[in-house]
Amino acid sequence: xxxxxxxxxxxxxxxxxxxxxxxxxxxxxxxxxxxxxxxxxxxxxxxxxxxxxxxxxxxxxxxxxxxxxxxxxxxxxxxxxxxxxxxxxxxxxxxxxxxxxxxxxxxxxxxxxxxxxxxxxxxxxxxxxxxxxxxxxxxxxxxxxxxxxxxxxxxxxxxxxxxxxxxxxxxxxxxxxxxxxxxxxxxxxxxxxxxxxxxxxxxxxxxxxxxxxxxxxxxxxxxxxxxxxxxxxxxxxxxxxxxxxxxxxxxxxxxxxxxxxxxxxxxxxxxxxxxxxxxxxxxxxxxxxxxxxxxxxxxxxxxxxxxxxxxxxxxxxxxxxxxxxxxxxxxxxxxxxxxxxxxxxxxxxxxxxxxxxxxxxxxxxxxxxxxxxxxxxxxxxxxxxxxxxxxxxxxxxxxxxxxxxxxxxxxxxxxxxxxxxxxxxxxxxxxxxxxxxxxxxxxxxxxxxxxxxxxxxxxxx
Length: 461
Fold this sequence. Notes:
Cathepsin B, Chain A; eight-stranded antiparallel sheet; elongated
């Protein structure tokens, strides 16, 4: 018989994962296998279907389903695990369902649809593929990139190489040693690997003035995974693929780091990221810890690591057409906050800065009559827009008050601001009157720059 069906239990999961040359004890002692048992148990798994003749550059595929008594098999399908005959890295390609959103708190934004066929039954699951590190071939950054590329292939039509190919590409230009065994990738090698699939690496070294949480969110919001590299005390550097976040209704961080020049950003309401960590498992939690002082960035904590995790860099694989990055966009925010702070309490400001696509924006405008003012709605629907855009939304006391669209295709030294509008009509009128005086213009032009000042003035008409 090429398959078996059994009840889901910890013992049964380990038995199904084990196989020559692995044994039951190998699976039981594997932390990733233990993580997956706990994860699937919380999802309510009840049944395991094992296909023993499956080949996926490995030997077994494990299908895990929930209770199917209440409906079709698809309703209870939780995903699959490919078991590898490697005692120290038994968890191969793994695609499992995410936890529920919990009323919108959990946001798993970097998912794609995976299709499988179980005995002629077509099944699908929304997820992001994971696998644990094969230490003889792939470093942690390699398998993190492999997970990132699962999503970017669908978003940007880029390549999806295997971990072996990723490691070779990473070493292509910096061949100081044999590519295998790989003991880790440098930032330069990570960039090489990203370039090899036709994408551009956007690198953000972690510095005190970088609002790290909001920066990662700004790309995750669109669905672009982010490679986070952090330092583990007494161990060294480690890389994980960020693929989601937990957004709370109130502020969780007094500051993300830095001297407080920036107003509050939406990242201050995020209390944890979700990541594919090859030393933990899929969608593992990274708890965000407040920056200890103004000279530091936030820290992270995870149950599989001891002590605080110190972030070193974030690397984002983006479409080459996205030339304007987060660091260029954020530079406009303090200027605009000063302007609007003339008539509103800046302590109540919160900026939501994120990437979007023109298709997503137009869909939102069409489906939500309150998304933008009526006088802006029609023009946004019919106007030709760049494929990707930066949205900068200012809310005051949680109410949207100002919005600015930026062109991602603008050159770094160009002027990317496309449109400005005011969801808060009272704010628009009050600030417009404030700017009428002849002496105000030259001062604001210095604060905002001449071209942004002209855009702001034009938005009042």
